[in-house]
Design goal:
Length: about 350
């Protein structure tokens, strides 16, 4: 039998607020949840009275509701008890009050300074349930099904000429053809007006093309869940931020992805720019050639000014690229877009 008590003027049983779940820090309302959370804090009846009172104040200020406090029982341990039905789920969280400065929960140890983080964890629990019951997440925190939906949306070809367009014009036109919304704030849109695209991206997929268009301007593409929908957001690039890449490493062996790259041909290159060589090889291989402008700018490399040569010989384009690009401080990488179409990615020999 459980015993409930009053500490001074504090009522230690806070009744659950029907259907309201928990609020996060401050006055911000919680995201509509698929379940409710009940937080049960247990501790020694004699020694934890003041600690209980202080934790109630901390949680109240953080906006956490539906809290119960009771004396510890022999079987008590930190954990989450899942109750109710799938349509009306209740997650009973048991936490142990060690002191006024330490609260043990399934997500770890919390101090009063962590109240906002604690509130966010409870919100997330109400919305998604315990980690072991959640659908496995892939990149960008999406489920496998959501990620595949994004990939398919971004796999469609651009389908129009991009050379000479401003980056904003190209991004917005690509966005209008997507099955998912493309979100871009006015500041990002303004930034993309400042430069034009030199490359032809019409045959590439929308995801790779968008990532390429945004990258030189310090922006990136990040798919994410917004409410109940998926969106593709254009945001400022930040270190360690997970972003949609400019193509990916092929899963198949490279000679199967682009056989022409490994066929022998007669090569004779005498003092021409690396840019000229790349353009010609791109035509012969019938693949787009994309340049990592960020990396080249960082190391002060201009393919239009870098002069390269290759003696007359019969060799493969793969070896030719390796030799002539090295002379310019560059390297090539075979990548594929979301639809599996190959292209050459040109970056620097030095680390980015």
């Amino acid at each position: 039998m459980r015993v409930w008590w009053v500490l001074g003027v504090w009522v230690v049983l806070l009744l659950a607020i029907g259907g309201a779940g928990l609020l996060g820090a401050g006055d911000r309302p919680a995201t509509p949840a698929t379940g409710r959370v009940q937080l049960e804090l247990v501790g020694d009846a004699q020694g934890s009275a003041l600690a209980f009172q202080q934790w109630l104040q901390v949680l109240s200020r953080a906006g956490v509701k539906n809290v119960r406090i009771r004396s510890a029982q022999a079987a008590d341990k930190v954990g989450i008890d899942v109750q109710g039905t799938a349509e009306n789920r209740l997650y009973v969280v048991t936490g142990i009050v060690k002191s006024s400065e330490e609260l043990l929960l399934p997500d770890g140890r919390f101090s009063p300074r962590d109240a906002a983080r604690l509130a966010r964890w409870l919100e997330d629990l109400a919305k998604h349930g315990p980690e072991e019951l959640r659908e496995p997440r892939s990149a960008f925190g999406l489920t496998r099904e959501q990620f595949e939906q994004v990939r398919k949306a971004l796999a469609r070809p651009v389908g129009f000429s991009t050379r000479g367009m401003t980056r904003r014009e190209a991004a917005e036109k690509i966005g209008r053809g997507l099955t998912l919304p493309l979100e871009m704030d006015p500041k990002s849109a303004k930034t993309l007006e400042e430069d034009k695209i030199a490359e032809e991206l019409s045959e590439l997929s929308c995801g790779t093309a968008l990532a390429y268009v945004l990258r030189p301007m310090g922006l990136c593409l990040v798919p994410r869940q917004s409410g109940s929908s998926l969106v593709c957001a254009v945001i400022k690039a930040e270190p360690k931020l997970e972003v949609w890449p400019v193509g990916r490493e092929p899963e198949k062996p490279l000679p199967e992805v682009l056989p022409a790259l490994y066929k022998f041909d007669d090569v004779n290159i005498q003092r021409v720019s690396a840019a000229t060589v790349l353009e010609e090889i791109g035509k012969r291989l019938k693949v787009p050639v994309l340049v990592d402008h960020n990396a080249l700018a960082r190391h002060g490399i201009d393919p239009g000014k870098a002069i390269v040569s290759h003696p007359p010989s019969r060799t493969t384009y793969s070896l030719t690229l390796r030799k002539i690009l090295f002379q310019a401080g560059l390297k090539s990488e075979l990548r594929v877009d979301e639809a599996g179409k190959p292209f050459l990615w040109i970056s620097t020999v030095k680390p980015v």
